[in-house]
Design brief:
Alkaline Phosphatase, subunit A; homodimer; alpha/beta; 402 residues; six-stranded antiparallel beta sheet
Chain lengths: 402, 402
């Protein structure tokens, strides 16, 4: 579909705003979902005057990770474009990845006589883990002609990026996880799955040895396990497909990282939604597509905190006036997936969406909720259809065929 | 999609029950459909608290046979996996088919001077038919190096399996039906459609001659007509894709046969729905997926008996308590296709479905009917999405992507 879209794009001065309340969809607890319980007069009014519906990020029944969820929102088929674990981890820790890179998700582990005693080094505290990672970065900057970038993470987790001097071929990161998955086993040998990966595997082996030399005398966290070897996908850029100049406004690194993967501008910002909106206002003139990411809705859902999630939705409802004041031509409010507090995690449930533009019907939904959105004019549809709908409503798509 | 499902399956102790009321969907007569007329307090209550919708087995406007309808329910693309009639018939009559086999659906017919007088030999009684078939099996065990297996069926129907000494090439069963479809015509000559089928066609010709030699002196049932020449497809097993241990509970042979084709346990049982439910209860501990087939709803639809079909639905409604008492984690009640009494046959209309689990909204449909299901949270969707939804609601699917 992106090929067809690319062929009928026309530019104009319209602005499209896509607000992603991470993990927006929920499930009823005592009869009502988080969205149904939350007092959201502004969202409800918007829903009454918008095209509403529910979208399915990957396929019915499939629970999307954040990567697939966002790619689908941006119009990329999340089954075709699968982002590796290492890449997501590195992006989340704020590393800008290049085509020369292999990204790896790493764990500190405890080893004794060649046997993994604890795959997570007793979940060492983040501050201690960070110190070790910083020491490793000091001692290890290069292996042969490959730059090594360490990025501290939470508890026993961190990321490593191997930056080669030249862009890597496809398949170069096809290396087996070294994590044996069960304690009491030796680590899995570094095993390349393709000939292209052999060179990378050599560097990885040297890396493990170099790291061991630095940390092997520690009682715990004296070894590392490596997983999710991956490269950035050769994914077409958002601007090239849609003719839009996009800005990502996201306080959480992983979402900026995902946006950067498809060529969005995603300057580092910190703070809460207020800060994000402030940044959005400052940059509103310079761009014509805005991805505004609101993380906290998902976080409370993941914690199983029904009331907290509802409150975050209410908080956003109060912030909405500022976004409406910018008066974008097309305003979409939705999520990247559902995160029902009941399930304490992402879920497969279709995600409510509202699309405000001068070219919709409205009048079908009384409020903004999962159940009301089933009555909306957009129906239940694959998430990748949302970008074409946004472009159409911005009058940025020419007729297909004569 | 089955590839992706297979990659994210996780096992747990949940139980999934799929009840298939064959030919469930109907059409209005005097303003109301069979489901709308039927008094179904239990189904209606269930619908109010379940995820409801309508599913399309093959594609909009396409009327599915029983094979495609059921394959789609089990998550197999019915366009990709087309099962021959002979195979279905033979499996249903309890023959375990191999890659060396060609299965054929047969009829006893009455022939006079080379002209078919009755294509069904006046629907001779099952016991008489069985005796003839047993006699044929006694007399004919081999044709050349090919084993011949006869399986008695209902009334004039039976099946023959030709078991060749070696696995057959694809296309080996591409032989025209010998049934002329209309009385007053001679039987159609055995005609192979491919070079691979020529050898099989030779054996079939010899078979017809051998059978004639045995039965030609009977007044009726003195000839056989052969249809649906087919080989077993190399279809992946249900258990291998979904990690479920499935039991088919079906009194009608063809549905057991279909289930066996995808590796389900499908022990022979007889009797009505009561007997099926008894069998289900006895085996409930040993399995984690249950396909319960209720045939009669379809039978009355096929007969154009509106009232009879509605009564069969009401009868099932009364039986429902016993199924609910088993308390499966996920309960699906639906059909394999619609069979409106108005059309006296299968139809293309989307099939109503309800899915009960702790992770649904409900509250959108007042009762269980075609029209009410259009308001449900599942929308109108391809039938092959039902299995992923069942697995998701049983919490048997991990997240896709990070």
């Amino acid at each position: 579909m992106q090929d067809i879209i690319k062929g009928i794009i026309q530019k104009n001065n319209s602005k499209i705003m896509m607000v992603v309340l991470d993990g927006l969809g929920g499930l009823p607890v005592h009869g009502k979902s988080e969205l149904e319980v939350a007092d959201t007069p502004n969202l409800d009014m918007l829903a009454r005057n918008s095209a509403c519906g529910l979208h399915i990020p990957v396929s019915p029944g499939i629970t999307p990770g954040s990567g697939p969820g966002h790619l689908a929102l941006f119009g990329y088929n999340p089954i075709e474009w699968q982002i590796g674990r290492g890449v997501l981890e590195a992006l989340g820790l704020g590393i800008d990845l290049k085509k020369t890179d292999v990204a790896i998700r790493c764990n500190y582990a405890t080893i004794e006589k060649g046997i993994i005693k604890d795959r997570r080094a007793e979940r060492i505290p983040t501050d201690k883990s960070k110190k070790i990672t910083e020491r490793l970065q000091e001692k290890i900057r290069k292996i042969d002609d490959v730059d090594v970038i360490f990025a501290p993470g939470m508890e026993h987790r961190f990321a490593v990026v191997l930056r080669f001097p030249k862009p890597l071929e496809k398949g170069s990161a096809d290396i087996k996880d070294t994590d044996p998955q069960k304690e009491g086993n030796p680590p899995v040998a570094v095993t390349p799955g393709t000939t292209q990966a052999e060179k990378v595997a050599e560097v990885v082996e040297k890396l493990i040895k170099a790291v061991s030399a630095v940390i092997r005398d520690q009682k715990k966290a004296n070894f590392i396990l490596l997983r999710g070897f991956s490269q950035v996908p050769h994914i077409p850029h958002f601007a090239d497909i849609y003719g839009l100049n996009p800005l990502a406004v996201a306080a959480y690194p992983m979402y900026r990282g995902l946006a950067k993967l498809i060529g969005m501008d995603a300057p580092a910002i910190t703070g809460d939604v207020q800060e994000e909106i402030k940044f959005l206002k400052q940059n509103y003139k310079k761009y014509d597509f805005f991805f505004l990411h609101v993380k906290k809705v998902d976080s409370y859902g993941e914690d199983g905190n029904f009331k907290g999630k509802a409150e975050q939705i209410e908080r956003f409802d109060r912030d909405l006036a500022q976004i409406l004041a910018l008066d974008p031509d097309v305003l979409i409010i939705t999520g990247d997936h559902s995160t029902p507090s009941l399930l304490k995690g992402h879920s497969w449930h279709p995600v409510p969406v509202l699309l405000k533009s001068p070219y919709v019907f409205g009048g079908l939904c009384k409020s903004f909720s999962e159940r009301e959105c089933t009555k909306g004019e957009l129906g239940i549809f694959p998430t990748i259809n949302l970008m074409p709908l946004a472009l159409a409503n911005a009058l940025r798509l020419k007729k297909f065929g004569a």
